[in-house]
TrEMBL record:
Pfam families: DUF952 (PF06108)
Alphabetical list of PANTHER family matching this protein: BLR1139 PROTEIN, DUF952 DOMAIN-CONTAINING PROTEIN
Extent of the signal sequence: none
Name listed for the protein in its UniProt record: DUF952 domain-containing protein
Length: 133
């Protein structure tokens, strides 16, 4: 499916609980990611809607900020660019738009730029509007 134009600078993985600190080379997959066979990611514009829809009952979230170009280059969680069985970002239509899915790779300290904790104040859309994306 088509990627957005222009391409985003960053993608985000939403976590309902704190990731290990420091980040390991490979973060464990969520049950949803494991069952679907890819890692669900969002653009900054998609994060508030995704958070409200899937994480409405939690009071805090952690956002993993990932540079799009790093993932698109095939960089795995260990920070190495794979040449064989290269991880791929695919843009796929999901109900309300096109979302990035990472196939064949992991997230970890080698491709996650930063981790941000966000506390819910009202809706996720209102709480997340305070972030610098």
């Amino acid at each position: 499916m088509p990627a957005p134009s222009p391409l985003p600078t960053h993608l985000y993985k939403i976590l309902p609980s704190a990731p290990p600190s420091p980040l390991p080379e490979r973060l464990p997959l969520s049950d949803l990611d494991r069952n679907d066979g890819y890692i669900h990611l969002s653009t900054s514009e998609q994060v508030p809607g995704t958070a409200d829809k899937f994480f409405g009952s939690v009071s805090e979230l952690w956002l993993l900020k990932i540079e799009y170009e790093v993932l698109a280059a095939g960089t795995d969680g260990d920070g190495k660019v794979k040449t064989e069985d290269k991880p791929q970002v695919k843009w796929e239509e999901v109900g309300r738009g096109y979302f990035a899915h990472l196939y064949g790779g992991d997230l970890g300290r080698g491709n996650v730029k930063s981790v941000e904790k966000v506390e819910k104040r009202g809706t996720w859309a209102a709480s997340l509007s305070l972030l610098e994306w």
